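pasting for ref
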Amino acid sequence: MNTFQYSGADFYYNDQPMQILSGAIHYFRTVPEHWQDRLMKLKYCGLNTVETYIPWNFHEPKKGQFNFEGMADLVRFIELAGELKLHVIVRPSPYICAEWEFGGLPAWLLEDSDMRLRCYHKPFLDHVDDYYDELLPRLKPLLCTNGGPIIALQIENEYGSYGNDKPYLNHLKHAMISRGMDVLLFTSDGPEDAMLQGGMVDGVLATVNFGSRPKEAFDKLREYQPDAPIMCMEFWNGWFDHWHEEHHTRSAKDVAEVLDEMLAMNASVNFYMFHGGTNFGFYNGANGHTEDSYEPTVTSYDYDGLLNEYGEPTEKYFAVREVISKYIELEDCELPAPMLKKAYGRIDMVEQASLTDNLDRISTPVHCAYPETMEKLGQDYGFIHYRTFISGPRPKDEFFIQDLHDRALVYLNGQLAGVMDRSDASTRLEFEVPTGGMQVDILVENLGRVNYGPYMSDRKGITEGVRYGRQFLSGWTMHTLPLTNLSGLSFDTISNQQTEPSFYRGKWMVEELGDTILHLPGWTKGVVFINGFNVGRYWNVGPQETMYVPGPLLKQGENEIIIFELEGTTDRAVTFLD
């Protein structure tokens, strides 16, 4: 049995003083074949601890259906860290933020119109308890008190930025303790009065999150917790990106200077992020700080971290190691060899399957008087297709999608009439209806649920209704399109016509597996699948211009790429670069 606790201003591991030097690596943003490489590089940087969130939606995608295998095998990730003699800090759900879809909450919670999130609401807490019954017994053998590497667990996450429901926080605390979580429990919040007052829990260590001005942050923490160690649980050494923005960077020099200042105070530190990784699939989150704002996060979660998205050390990595070497003696060590990288060249797309022709092959239609949300139809991520008919003739009037979440392509009699986006209220669509009437098709993309702030009840699709002028339109046929199974698609020889969303397929031979970079010049917006794995979204608005494809997603012999392109391409080919 090992112990990790604190007394006065110091942490102690087995009664020996310990300063936590930690880095965040999210197992769910990195393929399992790369976990050991990333963990070894963390250790060689001079860190003694790895920190990870646990996203609830990754492990319970459907109510009562749990997944702890493959990329979801957090037990193996923690065991690997222990084998490398690293300590582990775990930050479990219910809520993690992390720029992750819905902050880690499962989408199926929103099927209940009365659901209240992150508070003492019994239906919500019942779901949390069911989840903890599955999750926490898996962590128990890995606790340091049972000889494992886990030294601490977080209760909620930055709760003071959201609420002040102490009975809720105490429920989570006791839910962990009653299930045998007998290690150090902690909270983390911004270093502000309201955040600390709302997020702290009696008998639980408080830590703070920030990117600069450490003395000011720790002084504020000491006002509320004078007799405890000081720790920055999230030292923001970089930042994340939204579509339509510039890529965020932070200089190695600036990060090193702030770190030096913290270590001189004997503060413990967790780098957020040490290695960011990738928002594979549809798991990127979004920011929505006001009722009218919406900013989805890109596929890459590079974060300008100490390791880049591909796992290679950056200038920041070596600057941090140099600062750490001023305070502790680091062993001479050799970094793991860089991962093999391959350029597979240009791959032509040779087959095409239009969405319209394949709707009934990959989805079962649902008929209803009004458009339903994804959640009401049992869908979590992806797209949803709506269709109705407007009788004619009618004079020109405005077409409204009331409370659209998030982006819609509108087709009138099969022709694209406009693109509507919740983040651009200025877009207007007007048309007249001919004598024979008009078929209306709307393809709505879920661009990622809000992961932070007061607008997290972010149901997707058409959440209220569709109007032509003053009249709500009824008689809808809906197809859910989570795109989890594309085996039903019927491909034909590629067509010169690109007037609607289509799937494009190409194949290529691989002799040697290596990490590679997918470049899509000429493509507009869509999703990429490699050998059935959803690599994520691309969009020509930037800042992300390429997609990282880890070598373990490939196989020796024939490989398949399918691209779901929404708005057309000028070059029906892609290029794999090194």
